[in-house]
Amino acid sequence: MRVLCCLDGTNIEPVHKAVSTMLRADALTIGIVYVIDSGPQGEIERQRERFLRRLELPSHRREQMQQAEITAAQDILEEGERYFPTAEVIRREGRPEREIVNIATQWAADLIVICSRSSHSPGPPLGPKSVGHIARFVLDHAPCPVLLVRLRSNASA
C-alpha cells in the first residue's frame, strides 16, 4: 500500500500516530510531502499592483525569502524522515492543495493522510469550517481515499 503523508510543519506527530495506529508498517510504502506555497506571494503582488504602484522587491531580498522557504521545507522534511525513516521524500512548490492531488496521482498513492487544518489556525472543532481549504480541496479531488486527521485543540489537550 502506498501512503502519501502531507506535512505542514506542525502535524508530523499526529500523522505518524495515525499511520502507525491504523496501518501495518511492513506492508507500506510511505511518501512524505511538503509543498512550498507560492500562492500568497503571487496574491500579494497582484493586490499591490491593483491598489498601489508596482513595487519590485530587490532581487537579493527575493532570494533571501526563497532561501528561507527552502530551508523551512528541508527542516520539515528532515523531521518527517525521523518519524518515517524509510519514506520517499517529495518537495514541491506551488499551490499545496493542487500539488498534493497531482503528487498523489503521479505517485499512484493508495491513501493520502492529511490533517484537517494547521494547528496555527485551528478553527472550529466541528462542522463544515473545521476543515481547512487545503484539506477540503484534497478531500474533493483526490484520486484515492483520504484519511483526515483532526488535531486536538489546546483547550481539550
Written account of the structure:
This protein is of the alpha/beta class. It has a single domain, classed as HUPs (Rossmann fold, 3-Layer(aba) Sandwich). Helix content is 45%, strand content 19%. The protein has five helices and five strands; from the N terminus they run E-H-E-H-H-E-H-E-H-E. Strand 1, helix 1 and strand 2 form a beta-alpha-beta unit. Helix 4 runs parallel beside helix 5.
Blueprint of the fold:
Layout: E1 2-6, H1 12-22, E2 29-37, H2 39-51, H3 59-83, E3 88-94, H4 96-107, E4 111-115, H5 133-141, E5 146-149
Parallel strand pairs: 1-2, 1-4, 2-3, 4-5
How many domain regions?
Answer: 1
CATH level 3 topology? Rossmann fold
Class from secondary-structure proportions: alpha/beta
Biggest beta sheet summary: 5 strands, parallel
CATH architecture: 3-Layer(aba) Sandwich
Fraction of residues in H or I helices? 40-55%
Order of helices and strands: EHEHHEHEHE
- Count of helix runs: 5
CATH class descriptor: Alpha Beta
**Strand percentage, roughly?**
15-25%
Shape: globular
What's the total count of β strands? Answer: 5
CATH superfamily: HUPs
The unreliable regions are none
